[in-house]
Amino acid sequence: MFQSIYDTMISGHRWLLILSGLKITLIIAIFAVLIGTVLGCMFALMKVSNNKILRAIATVYTTVLRGIPLATQLMIFYFVVFAPLGWDRLLVAIISYGINSGAYCTEIFRAGIQGVDRGQTEAGRSLGLSKWQTLIKIVLPQAMKAVLPTYTSEFIVLIKETSVASFIAVTDLTKSGDMIRNATYNAWIPLLTCAIIYLILTLGLTKLFAIFEGKMARSN
Q1: What's phi and psi for 170, nearest 5 deg?
Q2: Which residues contact 71 (CB under 8 A, 6 or more apart)?
């Protein structure tokens, strides 16, 4: 067994491929979730606004992005939307994942905002705060605490979904494991290694956000 691991992963420094793929996976996930968070906040506010046009735009955005498989969106962005620009595959992947994540974050944040008791808004207005001041100082802080568990799940799902980045030849963690499999004709060691790394990442993030959530709960 150890000889098989050595021949597959250590010989030829193939383990460096795994590290490189992990780096790409984390880069995509981190930057995509940042983009998704910004887009999610923006479109969530549009969805809860009184402007019908803004609500319609936000609804179309979430409906389309959530209704099309991520792999299909990724290929559309790379081969159709950004093809004339000649952008780097990694950049296209980050933008694609970010736009997709934004659709899900929109619904997460919208539910959080609308879940805050209406009396909180009325109390803020009665204190002389404007509509936006009430939203920013009273509603949003409570909404963010409420949606943290769901937001955590979105981040974790996004990390796992980066595995389809190989559809546009991005060498992420899964693609790196597959390259080692093709080179060594050994499937279980590289693929199991990737699976274990994904599991460690998801469990680690779950624990980290749980600690953060606990601190926020105690701050109440």
Answers
A1: -85, 130
A2: 164, 167
Of 72, 87, 93, which is closest to residue 26 (Cα–Cα)? 93
The residue type found at 74 is L
DSSP 68: S
Under the banding of pLDDT at 50, 70 and 90, the label for residue 208 is confident
CA distance 82 to 111: 32
Mean pLDDT over residues 194-202, rounded? 92
Amino acid (1-letter code) at residue 101: S
pTM (global) more than 0.85: yes
The angle formed by the CA atoms of residues 111, 113 and 114, to the nearest 5 degrees, is 65
Residue written as token pair 């460690």: 200
What tokens appear for 64 in the block? 């389309």
